[in-house]
Design goal:
The chain is of the alpha+beta class. The chain has 3 domains: 118 residues, no CATH class; 95 residues, no CATH class; 274 residues, Orthogonal Bundle (Fic-like fold). The protein contains 21 helices and 11 strands. The strands form 3 sheets. It has a 6-stranded mixed β-sheet with strand order 6-7-5-4-9-8, covered by helices on one side. It has a 3-stranded antiparallel β-sheet with strand order 1-3-2, with helices on both faces. Helix 15 runs antiparallel to helix 16. The longest helix is centred in the middle third of the chain and has 19 residues. It is elongated. The two termini are 52 Å apart.
């Protein structure tokens, strides 16, 4: 919570003293105030837990003057998922509030390296927080201290920041100065070995967590993303298979599916042509002179999905996975040298509020993520996993969505299941499902969205352009997604089924 927001809401909270005790009690009886805890009142009609969160530092500063936020709470300067805020203060009794419990312990007061918070409260510096957590006898998600894995994850996050090596060296120097004051000399030795592992100047085996060990071995990965992939795998493992097999007698109906797959996959990424223009590019090599790169994007995608062997080729292991991604990217974007075809990105990328995996973390995160596909047998489950893995890492400067869908459909074809196209009108549904999975682990929506798209694809007659475009027009597939949203138009199955 920042100082500005705290000061803005400070008038919501009132504390009792000998002078106002009677007046506050009278105001409560008249309904003008509400009691939050003993001696703490509010004028607000909002949920008490929300009032407490807005005014947390005012409450801590009044009830625990000069307290230092440390131990588990040192990492974020905020209550943990259980509502605990751990502080150092001479007061011995916890203070239970709506949504938050402030849990004190005795210890050293503010040190020179600690950070001032509003209302006279202090936040433990990273070096103090790490020393006090690493020096604890026990830790855990329900205790007042971080586990060793959580402390090591903190070190990795510090190492991953800009000038991370310098930051860690400075942190170690400051930790040396305060370790004795805190009675954490033994914890300093432990911290030194972990910082050395993160700086690749020590033995990475000193680390307990995979995250710090991988960083120390020069293979840093995005821990948050890998945890998200693990959660998705767990959800997909519990998913009941709903096979949608490709039938031999339907081969004729799928004759032009690769063309429409390449067309839509590019269109929803902004490479927009009419269907006639795209058909001329793909089938007649009629490349518009003023849009050569865009045309070759469609041609490259078409080559990947039209090749009977390539479109069903799936990687066997992490190394093969990385090699397959790079090779397909080269084929797809070879006409765009600025997109670094066949190479991972060399700069950070983001879409809206979503910041993707940092360039230095890309390859190791892909490898770790691919290992999460082990044990997924259902082709549809593997397809969803592979699409989300590539989309979430966003390993390339350009072409990430198209490559993600190629990898998804390869898993389906390898399992003789119907491939998936994302029609123009379905673009916002697709992006919303991805965003929900990224920010809130809402994997159910992602699975349902792709399942609908697969069933839709199975029902369209792709035997020739006339049949396909009749179905596409009848189902609103070609409508502009924003316009369709405004008019309540939705993608529907051919024949209204």
């Amino acid at each position: 919570m920042d100082m500005e927001s705290t000061e803005r809401h400070a008038g919501e909270i009132l504390f009792t003293d000998e002078r106002n005790r009677f007046a506050l009690s009278k105001a409560v009886s008249r309904g003008r105030l509400r009691r939050i805890a003993r001696g703490i009142y509010t004028r607000s009609r909002d949920e008490p837990s929300a009032v407490v969160r807005r005014n947390l530092w005012a409450i801590v500063g009044h009830e625990f003057p000069g307290a230092v936020v440390t131990d588990r709470s040192a990492r974020r300067y905020a209550p943990d998922e259980h509502g605990w805020l751990t502080v150092v203060h001479s007061r011995s009794r916890p203070l239970k509030l709506p949504g938050v419990t402030i849990v004190p312990r005795r210890g050293s007061g503010p040190l020179f390296s600690d950070n001032p918070l509003p209302f006279g409260v202090w936040g433990a510096s990273p070096e103090r927080g790490l020393l006090e957590n690493l020096g604890a006898r026990s830790g855990g998600p329900t205790g007042r201290y971080l586990t060793v894995h959580e402390a090591e994850a903190w070190i990795v996050d510090l190492a991953a920041q800009s000038n991370g090596a310098d930051r860690l060296n400075d942190l170690r120097d400051r930790a040396r100065q305060i370790a004795s004051t805190l009675g954490r000399d033994h914890a300093f030795d432990r911290l030194t070995s972990l910082v050395s592992a993160a700086l690749v100047t020590g033995d990475a085996s000193a680390a307990v967590s995979d995250a710090l060990r991988a960083w120390g071995q020069g293979e840093p990965f995005d821990r948050t993303r890998v945890e998200r992939f693990t959660a998705l795998r767990g959800m997909l493992n519990d998913l009941a298979p709903e096979p949608l097999p490709t039938l031999l007698e339907d081969d004729a109906r799928r004759a032009l599916l690769p063309f429409y797959e390449a067309y839509f996959s590019n269109y929803i990424e902004g490479t927009e042509f009419t269907l006639d223009e795209a058909a001329a590019i793909v089938f007649d090599d009629a490349v518009p002179p003023n849009r050569s790169e865009d045309a070759h994007d469609i041609i490259g995608t078409y080559r990947l999905v039209a090749d009977a062997q390539e479109r069903r080729r799936t990687p066997n292991d992490p190394e093969d996975f990385v090699a397959t991604l790079l090779a397909r990217h080269m084929t797809m974007l070879e006409a765009r040298p600025d997109a670094l075809p066949g190479r991972f990105k060399d700069r950070a990328n983001q879409a809206g509020s979503t910041i993707f995996v940092a360039p230095d973390f890309v390859e190791a995160t892909l490898r770790r993520g691919f290992e999460g596909a082990n044990g997924l047998i259902d082709p549809y489950a593997r397809a969803v996993f592979m699409m989300f893995l590539v989309s979430e890492v966003h390993p390339f400067v350009d072409g990430n969505g198209r490559i993600a869908r190629v990898m998804m459909n390869a898993e389906l074809s390898a399992g003789d299941q119907v491939r998936i196209i994302i029609p123009t009108v379905y673009r916002l549904n697709y992006l919303a499902a991805l965003k929900g999975a990224t920010h809130n682990n809402q994997f159910d929506s992602l699975v349902a969205m792709l399942r609908f798209a697969q069933r839709y694809t199975a029902r369209v007659d792709f035997s020739d352009r006339q049949s396909a475009e009749r179905d596409l027009a009848a189902t609103s597939a070609l409508r502009d997604p924003v316009e369709a949203e405004d008019y309540g138009v939705r993608l529907k199955f051919p024949g209204g089924v």
